[in-house]
Amino acid sequence: MQVVDTATGPLPKPDAASLAHSHRVADYIRARIEVAGGRIGFAEYMQHALYASGLGYYCAGARKFGEAGDFVTAPEASPLFAKVLANQVVAVLEQIEAPIDRNILEFGAGSGSLAIGLLKRLEILGSLPERYFILDVSADLRQRQAAAIGAALPRYLGNVIWLSALPESFSGVVIANEVLDALPVERFLKSGQRTYRRSVAVEGNGFVWKTEIAPKLLRRAVKDIESGIGYQLPEGYESEISLGLAAWIFDLAASMTQGFVFLLDYGISQREYYAPDRSSGWLRCHFRHYAHSNPLIYPGIQDLTAWVNFTEVANAAFDGGLQVAGYLSQAQFLLHGGAQQELSEVSELPTAARIQLLQEVKLLMMPGEMGEHFKCLGLSKGNIVAPECFGLADRSHTL
Ligand SMILES: C[S@@+](CC[C@H](N)C(=O)[O-])C[C@H]1O[C@@H](n2cnc3c(N)ncnc32)[C@H](O)[C@@H]1O
Q1: Which among 83, 201, 257, 281 could disulfide-bond with 239, CB atoms 3.0 to 4.6 Å apart, if both were Cys?
Q2: pLDDT digit string (tens) for 238-266?
Q3: Helix axes of 245-255 and 310-319: crossing angle, nearest 10 degrees
Q4: Residue 102: is its pLDDT beyond 80?
Q5: What φ, ψ does residue 52 adopt, rounded to 5°?
Q6: What is the DSSP string of 71-124?
Q7: Distance separating alpha carbons of residues 106 and 161, to the nearest angstrom
């Protein structure tokens, strides 16, 4: 997701309706904190702020994606993203013998724009999947996806199936763009060689951070990180960890019989994630295209995300029986996945369209934009050869 970064600048003011909604979300979280005895872990706060039924950021009606929302994701930014991904999807689907097994499962489909872009392209390539499954935790977004896909591709709508849980057995292509970064994270603090959990309590009308001895699971997870990176995190070090990430990957791996997984997100290796000088973590908040680092304000009307530790994802995938096929920057993924061919006719476009396309390419591929911060991790199961791009610029040895 792409935003203006103004750590020091003032945030825009929410309008009255958004503010009223945020107060309702805050009331809800305050009640949960009261029930829990005065404080809740940050992961629970994030879960409520993003996913409380009918209230959370992803589960109420506000517009999140695109210029009128809070951020822009790659498929929202340019159709080029879906076109290149479609090339990779075809390379996988062609390897699956039975047509009935040539399916796509997209996690967290957001506004539905990636599904629409992919399906349009796959139709042109003569490779439409048998079924397109969508698994999204947000009932509000599921409705919007159905409306958008129904309007763009009415003839295919009958083949799109919204799931409420993973299928018992899935064969085909799995896609998750900017979903792992939306999983709740715990925030921890190292002090006096101990691990503490940062929790959230009520103060006045707002929320404040508290610090408490970390529960066993979190202590163990931080210990595992320290043995993975080979040193103890320094005094005062704060960062995040998603305790649900490994289980998410295990469940996915267990449900797959044959296929390939594309996980696209902004993230890095574990060594980079927990580098000693990165002592304030990777949590980011997005509000009206501004990025900042205070998750305790505007609950329910700002996005909360944390970069992904791709080493943890790859290890969990391997333990769950998936093969790590490759790990690329988004720029390399697009470049080696066919962006050049997609751009070959750029000089023939009218000037305005050419400028627009070049701006989109810059956003998707430049190192300072989405090109380097975003990665694509490819995972395979059941004798599927990875699409060629993974062999051309793989850096999975860095994980
Ligand atoms: C940042 S948005 C990305 C949307 C879209 N993939 C895109 O790239 O534009 C995150 C999406 O993931 C969904 N989501 C969050 N947690 C999820 C989970 N555990 N399983 C499935 N979807 C989830 C949200 O409801 C939302 O649709």
Answers
A1: 281
A2: 999 999 999 999 999 999 999 999 999 99
A3: 40
A4: yes
A5: -55, 130
A6: BB-HHHH-HHHHHHHHHHHHHHHTT-SSGGG-EEEEE--TTSHHHHHHHHHHHH
A7: 10
The answer to whether residues 65 and 73 touch, using CB atoms and an 8 Å cutoff, is yes
- Indicate which atom in ligand 1 lies nearest the CA of residue 181: 1
The four Cα atoms 73, 75, 80, 85 give a dihedral, to 10 degrees, of: 120
CA 351 to ligand 1 center in whole angstroms? 35
Which residues, including other chains, have CB under 8 Å from residue 20's CB and lie 6 or more apart?
Answer: none
As for ligand 1, residues whose beta carbon falls within 6 Å of it are 58, 65, 73, 75-76, 107-110, 114, 135-138, 141, 177-179, 182-183
Residue 270: count of CB within 10 angstroms of its CB? 20
> Which of 285, 395, 275 lies closest to 336 in space, CA to CA?
395
Computed on alpha carbons and rounded to an integer, the radius of gyration of the chain in Å comes to: 21
How many other β-carbons are positioned within 10 Å of the β-carbon of residue 188?
25
CA neighbor of 116 nearest in space, from 65, 157, 56, 166: 157
Helices (H) and strands (E) in the chain, counts: 15, 17
Which residue lies with its CA nearest to atom 21 of ligand 1? 136
Q: What confidence tier does 7 reach under pLDDT thresholds 50, 70, 90?
A: very low
The pLDDT value recorded for residue 222 is 98
